[in-house]
Each structure stands twice: as C-alpha cells, then as structure tokens.
Design goal:
This protein is an alpha+beta fold. 38% of the residues lie in helices and 19% in strands. The strands form two sheets. Strands 10-11-1-12-3-6-13 form a seven-stranded mixed β-sheet, with helices on one face. A six-stranded mixed β-sheet has the order 5-4-7-2-8-9, with no helix packed on it. β8 and β9 form a beta hairpin. α6 packs parallel to α9, α7 packs across α8 and α10 crosses α11. The C terminus is likely disordered.
Length: 322
Amino acid sequence: MDVLAGLLDGPRARGAFLLRMVMQPPWSVRIEDRAPLCLMCVTSGGMWIVPDGGGDPVELRAGDIAISRGPVPYTAADRPGTAPRAVIGPGGVCRTLEGEPLAESLRLGVRTWGNASDGATTVLIGTYRMDGEVSRRLLDALPPLVRLPADAWSCPLTPLIEEEISRDGPGQSVVLDRILDLLLIAALREWFARPGAEAPGWYGALADPVVGRALRLIQGEPARPWTVASLAGACGVSRAGLARRFTELVGEPPMAYLTGWRLATAADLLRGTDDTVEAVARKVGYSGSFALSAAFKRVRGVSPQEFRRNVAPDVSRSLLSG
C-alpha cells in the first residue's frame, strides 16, 4: 500500500455528500461546512472560487476539476463580486444568510440542487465528511485549492459520476463513494506529477526502489515488530544505508515514520470501529493497551479513550434532506 492508497483505505468515502449543482447567474454560495476535502467538477458553464483571507479568486471552466482542502471557508460564485445568497454549513445543510432552510426550495431532483433546472452552470460536487487521521499526511501536503484544467488532463470518471449521480437504485451510495474515491486518486496523482506541485518527500520517495519498498512495508504491515535492521534486510540494503536514504528522501527516520503511521492508523480505528483499545494496540504493532496509551498520549496529548470520546459524531444531514 502507498500513501495515496492509505488516504482512502481506512477512512475512505462512506456515504459521501454528492450532488449536481445547477445554477443560473447571478449566484453565490458561502461554504462553511468544514469538510476535510471536496472535489468540484465543472461540466458546463463556469464558476469562481473565492478563498477567505484575501487570496486570489480561481476561475473554473467546463472540464476543470478543483480539490478544496478544509476546514477554511470559501465562496463559490458566478463571478468574484457576487455577494453570497446562501450558506452551506456542516453536513451540507443549506440556509439563507438569515438562517432560513433552503433544502426544499432549491431541490431539483435526485441529488440535484440549484436555482434553475436549465441553469448555465453545472457542477458535480463530492465531499468527504470524515477527517481521517491516516490521510492527514497527504492533506497537509495540499494547498487550500488544487485546480486541474481541462486542457491538462483527461479523466473518464467525470462522465461516469455525472451519469450515476442522479440514479437512486439499491446500493447507489456505495457506487458513488467508490467512483469518488477513484476520481480523487486520479486527480491527486495527476496534480503531484505536475511541475512545481511541490509534492511531499514521502510521495517522491515511493518511486525509490529501496525507500519506496520500506514505506510500503510499514504502511502495509504496521503490526510487524519492525526495526531499522529488519526493514533494511527486507529491502536488501544495509541498516546504515536505509536509515540515511530514508531520512534524506522522506524527511524523518524510519522509526519516526513508523510511529506516526501506527498512531494515525490507531486513531482511525478508534474513530471508525468498536474495537477495544487492546485490540487496536495489537493491530498497529503495540504490545497492549498500556503501550499504545503511553505513545498516544505522548504524541497527541490525550489517551486513546479520551480521543474516542472527543471525536465528533459523523454528520448525516445534508442540504438535500433539510
């Protein structure tokens, strides 16, 4: 497993918020949902993303895909100067600026929402609602907004999402979740491969025949009692050679990376399963609950039990359900 796979292998899309937005100018929507990640695919017309804090507005045209990294708010509009007329909060709940619900008045059909059924702009939106801990290494490497222009890449998944998003058959939400996962991976791979993308060290290290294998071993088998020596042996190099090359390419020593991966995986399990702390500890390579608790509290400042209690419940409401 590599880190891109790790992004979605644990907390991958589960009941992701997906819809088709159809708008006729003038329109402007303030996004305050605090979602960790959102994909926007413009299939007709165009729109602007206006970031908070005075950043430059970004134009999206038909065929473009944007990835927005939360939780910082932003505004989506037909043009930068259009004042917001609606606010989307956590869980996709949409209201007027005065707080009045808009779900019913803007509903246009199955997973379709907007101010005009024949509007000039159509955007497919897929939002990940859960902030998974394993993915944090990747999300922290992304800028607040990634734009992939239509003339720079071609992705066959966009028409597939457009075809599937308005269907309402059995298991449709799972189908859409998996298509969204594939689209995200394809978009991130394309973006990281672009000149000037400033991909993090571990991403480039995945292509290295030695360090890439070490990373995959750590991520794929975190419960194994790894040492630098055993990793080096599995990779066919000396202990000193692996330690030096790993630190040079990844930016931290192998055992520090292993600890971070184990604790991130443990956090995902605490968040998304009913496993006991003892069971979680053994799944990620600790001898028991005491050892995991000590490491978890040292790094995160809280015990595994406190972390589990403090995790916000998954929000299930959406602007299409009111």
